Input
Amino acid sequence: MKPLIYYAHSAQDELGNLLPYEHWQTLQSHLVNVGEIAAEFARVFGAQEIAYQTGQLHDLGKYSELFNQRLHGGPSVDHATAGAKVAKMLASGWVPKYKLWLSFLG
Output
């Protein structure tokens, strides 16, 4: 069975037609990239680790069938709240399950 791939962004040609999946950005790649960029910006005040983790959480809600439908022209979907909820749980000591989540991200 082929593994399910989630995407962060679709790609379109100049006429607005969806390009094949190989042109789309995977969600895993997007979250890692954002985490790395956030960590680099946070380096100046020594908060690289929390910035990296926050970058990985910011689009967590894109791991959903509803967001997949959005990428194919469906209605807007709230994809930010899931990551905010996980961040709130982290702040209240919910670390073990969070580490499990990160293991799925790569």
